[in-house]
Structure formats: structure tokens, C-alpha cells
From TrEMBL:
Part of the nascent polypeptide-associated complex (NAC). It comes from Carpinus fangiana. Residues 33-97 form the NAC-A/B domain. Keywords: Transcription, Transcription regulation. It comes from the Eukaryota. It holds the Pfam family NAC. Residues 121-160 are annotated as: Disordered. SMART domains: NAC (SM01407). InterPro entries: BTF3, NAC_A/B_dom_sf, Nas_poly-pep-assoc_cplx_dom. This is Nascent polypeptide-associated complex subunit beta. Belongs to the NAC-beta family.
Length: 160
């Protein structure tokens, strides 16, 4: 390259005047903490108060339950706002059923009835094993015969 062009490019990188040190790296600003601060300031403006001694929070959605164990719970009754923060676990309703029967509302009691009817319809011992036995027949790979190819075997099964 031309020495003149190099000097011109080197001069464009300076942060100050002539004789100042060149910038070594670009400063990267973190935005994750600003989002959290913005959320906390909005919650403070709404007027949420911490609710102590809550051991578990369950959020019911159809057949799925989002479960928080030992969460931080904040609420503002006037703004009709509840904040649940912690690590969630998504579980099926039947997995945590015995411990949460007293927490179920009228909508989820209907789901519970549907689950009970499904279990009563299934014959004993015909759980998930019976369903997979039927599906395995369709997914079998055809046997290889000398002189035959997979394409020919696939065409043969499509025609029958």
C-alpha cells in the first residue's frame, strides 16, 4: 500500500488531537442490567410490595403446570399486578397431581375429570407400550435381498 494512504487511515483512528494515543478497543455497553433496572423502577413506580414466606407458585395452563419453588413474589393490589420471579419448571398436571388437588380451580377440575376418564378407558397394562407396538410396524426398514435396492423395495410397498 501507499505510505500516504496508511498515514491518512491511521489519522482517522485518533480520539484526540495530534500526538494523542490511539484507541485500543471499542467500549461495549451492556444492556441486560439496564433492562433489569428499568423493570425494577417501573415496579417501584406501580408500588409493588414483597410478599414473604411463599414456598411454591403454580400457574395452570391446560394440561401443563408452570411451577416455581421458593420464588420471590411481589404484588400491587391497586394495579392488579403480581410479579413472580425465580426458576420455573414446566410439568404435566398428572405428575404433580396428589399435592395440588386443593389448589385446583373449577377449570382445572374439568381437566382432572378428563384425565380420569382417559385412564379408565385404557385397559389395565395397556399403557404406552401398546401404542408404540403399533407404530413400530410402520417404521421398519425393509430387508435387503441380493440384487434389490431400497428404491425398488420402497416402490413395491407403495404399490401394495
Amino acid at each position: 500500500m501507499n505510505r500516504e494512504k496508511l498515514m491518512k487511515m491511521a489519522g482517522a483512528v485518533r480520539t484526540g488531537g495530534k500526538g494523542s494515543v490511539r484507541r485500543k478497543k471499542k467500549a461495549v455497553h451492556k444492556t441486560t442490567t439496564t433492562d433489569d433496572k428499568r423493570l425494577q423502577s417501573t415496579l417501584k413506580r406501580i408500588g409493588v410490595n414483597a410478599i414473604p414466606a411463599i414456598e411454591e407458585v403454580n400457574i395452570f395452563k391446560d394440561d401443563v403446570v408452570i411451577q416455581f419453588i421458593n420464588p420471590k413474589v411481589q404484588a400491587s393490589i391497586a394495579a392488579n399486578t403480581w410479579v413472580v420471579s425465580g426458576s420455573p419448571q414446566t410439568k404435566k398436571l398428572q405428575d404433580i397431581l396428589p399435592g395440588i388437588i386443593n389448589q385446583l380451580g373449577p377449570d382445572n377440575l374439568d381437566n382432572l375429570r378428563k384425565l380420569a376418564e382417559q385412564f379408565q378407558r385404557q385397559p389395565p397394562g395397556a399403557g404406552a407400550g401398546a401404542a408404540t407396538a403399533q407404530d413400530d410396524d410402520d417404521d421398519d426398514v425393509p430387508e435387503l435381498v441380493a440384487g434389490e435396492t431400497f428404491e425398488a423395495a420402497a416402490e413395491e410397498t407403495k404399490t401394495t
